[in-house]
Design goal:
- The protein is α+β, with helices and mostly antiparallel strands.
- 19% of the residues lie in helices and 31% in strands.
- The strands form ten sheets. Strands 1, 2, 3, 4 and 5 form a five-stranded mixed sheet that branches. A four-stranded mixed sheet has the order 8-15-13-11, with no helix packed on it.
- The N and C termini lie far apart (225 Å).
Length: 524
């Protein structure tokens, strides 16, 4: 309190001042006890100790955890920024201010908290990844981090989030690398199934020869092979290094080649594909080619093998003109050969790849075939149409006969003469037998000849008429010529019947005799 001193001339003023001071002092004396009576508990408020602990998680606020009745956090918006044991102050403020209990209104306490790591919620960068010919990865992310500056260092199951080829994989997080966080208790929440997606295309690589040759219809090459991609693609054997063609060391035979294709524009890579390359650069092996023969035929048998593509065909060449061959597998039968001749032919064996091996076959046909004669041995005699020369025992060797050879067709040959065949006195065929008047077969009939006489007579009359009308005035011809003509006609008819009945007989002399007899009768 400050006090102030004044002069006498101001006594009246001083009195007024004293009265004011006394009034203020009295007011203060009365006001302070009344204030103490109005809030008697305020003087009794104190800090108390609580016997309970609040369990909390990292990154949450105090207000996220409710205290027992009447207690409230002094700083409810505060974050729990560290894992472990900590405290936070709370004040008791009951809803009914006059209520009595264990705590007085306004009591404060330091509440114990156990802050545990926060359970993370994971998300993944991708579950379908395009394969570009190099290893690819996916990454996990924490979607419920408490603070932006929280750092995570994920650990994955071995190779689970990395792939070097198209396929389906399962990624698993084993640690987040931050002590303020923990993985979910449910293990499935830490995993994800993901795919490395390959390029889908129906295009495939091709196998060609190293020098550019194409496989034959059976797919075989006769040279080293390379695998080439289709247009717009590169090719790789491991799915990493891509080239314009794939050179592969191929063994003899069939080899399966695996490869990948990469789109030259998008760089996306296909799944592993494969193609079969078939290479055979060796010709077949011919172990034997033998022939057996007769005088006009031969049989050639071939034995060959090919260990890679296999024997595909056999061919025989060098046949002489006029010969024919029939084939059954590796056996050839040749016909139309000449007896006693030597032949040289060639056998070609081709494998499935087109490699060819050849072998020469030489053989000779035997002499002409022999035949056995029955009866006595022909010795020095000549038969019709063949010559029995060089006989030995009962075997006759026949030679081919030339029709122009006089030796075999001599007109004067004693073994074949006109006299033998058409003897006039032949008992089997005589003039009398052929032209008998009373022959029962009607070869000679007086009535037929009478009719002929009548016809010739009419002809004589016709000649007379013509002579009478003619200018020449010469007499018509009345000689025996008509009778001769008629006789020739009759002889031809009779001779035809005779030949049909008796075969080959000499009839010219008989016909001539009959004609002469008819002419003689006419002359009489």
């Amino acid at each position: 309190m400050t006090y102030v001193t004044e002069s006498p001339k101001n006594v009246s003023s001083l009195g007024k001042a004293l009265r004011l001071v006394l009034a203020v002092s009295l007011a203060l004396f009365v006001a302070v006890p009344l204030q103490r009576l109005a809030a008697p508990s305020a003087a009794l408020a104190e800090e108390v100790t609580l016997d309970w602990v609040v369990e909390a998680q990292y990154g949450y606020q105090l207000k996220d955890y409710r205290l027992p009745g009447g207690w409230s956090w002094d700083n409810p918006d505060a974050y729990l920024s560290a894992v472990g044991d900590t405290t936070a102050q709370a004040t008791y403020s009951p809803k009914n201010p006059g209520a009595t209990g264990d705590y007085a209104e306004g009591d404060v306490a330091q509440v114990s908290l156990q802050v545990k790591p926060r359970e993370v919620q994971l998300a993944w960068s991708a579950t379908d990844v395009a394969y570009l010919g190099a290893p690819v990865q996916i990454q996990a992310q924490v979607v419920n981090a408490a603070f932006q500056n929280d750092v995570f260092a994920f650990t994955y199951g071995k190779g689970s989030n990395t792939a070097s080829a198209p396929g389906t994989y399962v990624a698993k997080v084993t640690s987040v690398g931050n002590s303020n966080y923990v993985l979910p208790a449910d293990e499935s929440a830490c995993k994800v199934t993901w795919n490395v997606v390959a390029l889908s295309t129906g295009k495939t690589a091709s196998v060609i020869g190293k020098k550019g040759s194409a496989p034959n219809k059976a797919g075989w090459l006769k040279e080293a092979a390379v695998v080439v991609p289709p247009s717009g693609f590169a090719i790789s054997s491991d799915g990493k290094t891509f080239k314009s063609k794939l050179s592969v060391t191929l063994k003899q035979g069939s080899t399966k080649v695996s490869y990948y294709l990469q789109d030259s524009t998008t760089k996306q890579v296909t799944n592993k594909k494969s193609v079969t390359a078939k290479v055979d650069t060796k010709a077949p092996s011919i172990s034997s080619a033998k022939a057996t023969s007769t005088s006009t035929t031969a049989t050639v048998k071939v034995k060959a093998s090919d260990a890679t593509s296999g024997v595909a065909s056999y061919k025989l060449s060098g046949l002489p003109k006029g010969a024919k061959v029939t084939q059954s597998g590796s056996t050839f039968r040749i016909t139309g050969l000449f007896a006693g001749h030597s032949y040289t032919m060639s056998v070609a064996v081709t494998d499935a790849a087109g490699n060819v091996a050849t072998k020469t076959v030489k053989f000779a046909t035997t002499a002409k075939a022999t035949s056995s004669s029955s009866g006595s041995t022909a010795s020095g005699s000549t038969t019709s149409g063949s010559s029995a020369r060089g006989t030995s025992g009962s075997t006759v060797l026949f030679e081919e006969i030339d029709p122009s050879d006089d030796e075999y067709f001599d007109d004067e040959d004693e073994s074949f003469t006109d006299e033998d065949l058409f003897a006039e006195e032949d008992e089997d065929f005589s003039d009398e037998d052929l032209f008998a008047d009373e022959d029962e077969e009607g070869y000679y009939d007086d009535e037929e000849f009478d009719d002929a006489d009548a016809e010739f007579y009419d002809a004589d009359v016709a000649w007379d008429d013509e002579s009478a009308d003619g200018e020449s005035g010469e007499e018509p011809y009345t000689g025996p010529l008509p009778l001769i003509i008629a006789g020739l006609i009759l002889a031809a008819a009779v001779g035809g019947q005779a030949l049909a009945r008796f075969g080959k007989r000499k009839f010219s002399e008989a016909v001539a005799a009959e004609v002469a007899r008819q002419i003689a009768q006419r002359g009489d």
